[in-house]
Amino acid sequence: MNIWTGLRKPKSEWREIVAIVFASASHYSLPTGTQRRGEMGSLSATTVLPFHLRRQNNQRSGLYDRRHENLPVVVSSSQITQKRWLNVPETKLKRETLRLGFVARAADSPPSMASGDKTLIPDDEFTLAKISFGVIGLGLGVSLLSYGFGAYFNILPGSEWSAIMLTYGFPLAIIGMALKYAELKPVPCLSYADAVKLRESSATPILTQVRNDVTRYRYGDEQHLEEALKRIFQYGLGGGIPRRSAPTLTMIKEEVLTDGRYCLVLVFEAKALELSDFEKRQAKFTSFFGPNITAEVGKGESENLYEVRLISNVSASSTTS
């Protein structure tokens, strides 16, 4: 039978065929763009022509039923997968991407666990030695003077107390200014956790006194450890250094050496001195801060800085025994 004879149908049957094709195509949600063109191509090539042949056979055998007619559509698995991926909400994609990026950064970053032995212990203990009496005296004196003058000229209430406030406010202000002028501020102290544990058992009384003296306000001294530096460097004497070249204490540190001994490090700034000037006086540092002390001299972390390490020879076991 010639195929063209089978295709010569009345116009009513062709309208019915076109309606069935469009109804079946609208039943499936086809993708847009190039995918839709590809799938429509597969419809016309694989389903339209075989459908006419099947329809003729079904009509002849009496099995054709319009109510149960269904046009098969060929959709590849890759297109279905791609369509499902495109239907994922954008907010969910962003949330999953951020979560995966956060997990990746957390896995790549090294653990931020600080060693317990080298943890810095802040020196936040409140003592009267850490209070500036110059600031207190000057503040009280100026306050009493200001209120006393205001009360004396009837600007502020309490004119009957103005004389007393002026009498005590003036000397307090003078004393506060004098203390502020002669004030020597404390130096910073870096204390590590392992050194703090050994402080009471291994630090000698002289090392404890040195740490307490340099970490509080002092009045009347030109610099910290002035008496010790005067004897060690011999200001103005033969073999000594000029007083204007004297080193200045800038910081102290409490550390523990590799052999477990307690060490108090004195960090000096000396622009006019060299490391050799400290090295040839190493024995004097040992004798002055002794007994049970070994002094070691070394270069600091930056230029013009020098470190004097006062190592305690007192062990914790000997102290407890």
UniProtKB/TrEMBL annotation:
Signal peptide: none annotated. The chain crosses the membrane at residues 131-155, 161-182. InterPro entries: DUF2854. Keywords: Membrane, Transmembrane, Transmembrane helix. This is Thylakoid membrane protein slr0575. The keyword Transmembrane applies. The keyword Transmembrane applies. Pfam families: DUF2854.
